[in-house]
Every structure is written in C-alpha cells, then in structure tokens.
C-alpha cells in the first residue's frame, strides 16, 4: 500500500514538474515579447490554489495531468474584451506581435523541455564517469557522434536453467569465465561446452557491483542464460558537449529501434508490439512504479526521457499542440494574411477534443494490455 502511495506521489510530481517546465517556457517567452499573460495553471478542472500577482493568476487545479498558460491573443478572441476594454489592437496582444515573436512563444515550451533534459543528461553522465548504461541495440549502422563505443557481453537469466539456481542476478554484464576475460559470445559458449561447471564473474550495468557464481553445465552444454551484445557510449573526450551529444545519439538509437519494430510488424502483420511503444498516463505510472527503487540516476534519466517525449509530442502538426500552432502562424506568414480568429479557435478547440478522445483510447489500450506492459517492464 505504501509503495503504491509513493508511486502516485512521484507520478503527480513528475507530471507536474514537466508541465511546469513546459509552460514556464511559454510564460517567460510571452513576457519577453511583451504579451500579457492572464493565467499560469498547473492541471485542469476545478481550482484548488490561486494567487493573483499583477495581471497574472497563478493556479493549481484538481486534475494533475497537464496545464496551460492563457496569453492575450492566443486562443478565444472573446478574451480580447476584459473589464470593458477592447484589447484586439493592444500592444500586449500576442496576435499583434510579429510572426517570429509568435513562433518564439509557441516553441518556447518545447525548448525548455529539451534544455532541462540536456541538463539532466549532464548530471547522469557526470555521476557515471561520462559513460552511458549498456545499450542493447545493434549500433553498426548508426552514426554515433562524439562518443567512443565500447562493446560488452550482456546476459539475462532463463527460468528453466542452472544459472538461476546459482543466485546470479537476473541480468548484468559478463566480465570473466573461469578467470579469463571474455567479450565474445562464441568464446564464452566454447568455454561452457567444454566444462562440467563454470565460474562467471558478472557485474551490474554500472560495473560497480560484481560477484563470482559457480554454475553447473547441463548435458546440452548450456547453463541457462541468454546472451546479447551491449554497447557503452563514452563521452569522456567531449564533456562540455556531452548532454546534446547524448540526446542526439539517443534519438538515433530510438529511431533505429522503432524502424526495426515497424519492419518486423509489416512482415508479420502483428502491430501490437509497436502499439505498446505509445502509452499514456497509465504507462507513465507503470514506468515510475517500476523504476522508483532503481536509484536516483535511473529515475532522473526517466524524467529526462519523458521531457524529450513531451517536447516531441508537442511538435506534432496538430492545431491544439505547439507544432500545429506554429504551422498556422507560418501559413499566415506565407499568405501574408491572418486567418479568421473565430475559425482558428474552432479548429484548435476541435482538435483538442479529438486529442482528448485519443488520450482516452490510449488509456483504454493500456488498461487492456496492462499485464503485458508489466511483463515488459519486468
């Protein structure tokens, strides 16, 4: 029960923090260009805590799943009339600012999410000796930038083998077999097949916790582990630019994984593994619940990755999202004519409704597949 309560608190904190970072970008950018901000709100629904300072109402609402900044000129044109004053031509109206200024305000939230993620990546790499945790993805066709690639031999324990009986950790990195250093699958397999018992020196992914484990070899020449090559990226030679480099390489690796999954899905006709890569609040909660006991750096890495995910999502060309708003402003600039304010508001509000429906459908999908998701997370 206590564990579940802690997970809920962490979930609310993470969502609230990422929302605060994102909306702070819009808020600060609006202030920078001289646009008036009426409300800075964390969450949706009924107001719980409010504080008015100058023209801005700062608010915490009941549903901690997002937030918004209400800027004059960005949204419903009915907001132009406040306290008997027509603000449609006001210099504080964002819609009256240059197109560059409007785009700057709309992209500021994405920029802040990326900036904070990079800041967290610096912290994570700094504490890890400027090295990443092992990546179990084939990097041979990925152009890694600014990092030395170190290959290592990873393993995971099979349920029906002798390895699990030895007390060996469920997964980790194999350093030695019978006192001999090993990096190659074939060399390790040859040592196992020629022995009745082997002793593995294994370490966790950080390389800090290691131990030796004698394991009996069965009649088939196996000990009950699954081997896989992992790669560690070392940014020691590029410490000053390690954060952006880490982000760049991470996006390349994720793109490679998604591309591979898409190719497999097309061949097999089974798109369910690919659909599980798209998740909503329930999936985020399960991630937080699963990783909360794995150390501060692992949790910080999760927050950084979620911040990047939020940035990418907001860049989608959907009118209700930042990317869609930028597209509308850019088209206005190309045609040198502002679109009808009421029409823009209708399109944005309509797409928001569709977006909410999509979020609900994703949550339903997550509920249906919750057991599968738990198995994937271990």
Order of helices and strands: HEEEEHEEEHEEEHHHHHHH
Distance from N terminus to C terminus (CA atoms, Å) equals: 20 Å
> Mean of residue pLDDT?
85
Beta fraction of the residues?
15-25%
Question: Any idea what the shape is?
Answer: elongated
Structural class: alpha+beta
Number of strands: 10
Which value, in Å, is the CA radius of gyration?
26 Å
Domain tally: 2
Provide a count of the helices: 10
Fraction of residues in H or I helices: 40-55%
Main beta-sheet strand count, sense and barrel state? 6 strands, antiparallel
Given as residue ranges, the uncertain stretches (5+ residues, pLDDT < 50) are none
Describe the structure using short key phrases.
two-stranded antiparallel ribbon, 2 domains, six-stranded antiparallel beta sheet, 10 helices, 10 strands, alpha+beta, Pdz3 Domain
Provide the fold topology:
Layout lengths: L1 H32 L3 E17 L2 E16 L9 E2 L2 E2 L12 H29 L20 E10 L13 E7 L2 E2 L3 H9 L3 E7 L6 E7 L8 E10 L7 H27 L3 H4 L5 H11 L4 H19 L7 H14 L5 H28 L1 H8 L1
Antiparallel strand pairs: 1-2, 3-4, 5-6, 5-10, 6-7, 6-8, 8-9
Helix pairs in contact: 1-2, 1-6, 2-4, 2-7, 2-8, 6-10
Textual characterization of the structure:
There is one protein chain. The relative contact order is 0.12. A hairpin with a 6-residue loop joins strand 8 and strand 9 (210-216). Helix 1 crosses helix 6 (281-291) and helix 2 packs antiparallel against helix 7. 48% of the residues lie in helices and 21% in strands. The two termini are 20 Å apart. The protein contains 10 helices and 10 strands. Strands 5, 6, 7, 8, 9 and 10 form a 6-stranded antiparallel β-sheet that branches. The chain has a two-stranded antiparallel sheet with strand order 1-2. Strands 3-4 form a two-stranded antiparallel sheet. It folds into 2 domains: 2-128 and 280-377, no CATH class; 148-233, Pdz3 Domain (Roll). By secondary structure, the chain is of the alpha+beta class.
């Amino acid at each position: 029960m206590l564990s579940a309560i802690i997970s809920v608190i962490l979930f609310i904190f993470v969502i609230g923090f990422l929302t605060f970072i994102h909306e702070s970008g819009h808020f600060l950018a609006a202030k920078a260009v001289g646009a008036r901000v009426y409300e800075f709100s964390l969450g949706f629904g009924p107001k719980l805590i409010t504080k008015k300072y100058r023209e801005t109402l700062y608010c915490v609402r009941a549903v901690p799943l997002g937030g918004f900044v209400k800027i004059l000129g960005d949204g419903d044109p009915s907001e132009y009339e406040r306290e008997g004053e027509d603000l449609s031509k006001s210099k504080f109206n964002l819609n009256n600012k240059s197109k560059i200024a409007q785009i700057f305000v709309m992209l500021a939230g994405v920029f802040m999410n990326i900036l904070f993620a990079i800041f967290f990546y610096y912290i994570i790499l700094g504490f890890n000796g400027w090295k990443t945790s092992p990546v179990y993805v084939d990097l041979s066709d990925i152009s890694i930038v600014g990092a030395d690639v170190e290959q290592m031999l990873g393993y995971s324990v099979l349920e029906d083998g002798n390895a699990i009986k030895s007390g060996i950790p469920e997964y980790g990195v194999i350093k030695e077999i019978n006192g001999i250093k090993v990096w190659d699958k074939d060399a390790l397999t040859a040592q196992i097949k020629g022995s009745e018992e082997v002793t593995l020196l294994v370490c966790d992914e950080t390389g800090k916790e290691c131990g030796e484990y004698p394991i009996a070899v069965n009649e088939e020449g196996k000990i009950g582990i699954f081997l896989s090559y992992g790669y560690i990226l070392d940014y020691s030679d590029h410490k000053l630019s390690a954060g952006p480099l880490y982000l760049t390489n991470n996006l390349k690796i994720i793109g490679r994984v998604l591309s591979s999954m898409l190719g497999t899905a097309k061949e097999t006709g089974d798109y369910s593994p690919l659909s599980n890569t798209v998740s909503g609040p329930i999936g985020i909660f399960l991630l937080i619940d699963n990783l909360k006991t794995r150390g501060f750096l692992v949790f910080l890495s999760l927050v950084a990755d979620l911040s990047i995910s939020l940035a990418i999502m907001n860049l989608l060309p959907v009118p209700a999202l930042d990317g869609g708003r930028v597209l509308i402003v850019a088209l206005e600039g190309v045609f040198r004519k502002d679109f009808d304010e009421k029409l823009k508001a209708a399109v944005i509000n309509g797409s928001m409704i569709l977006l909410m429906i999509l979020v609900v459908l994703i949550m339903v999908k997550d509920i249906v597949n919750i057991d599968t998701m738990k198995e994937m997370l271990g």
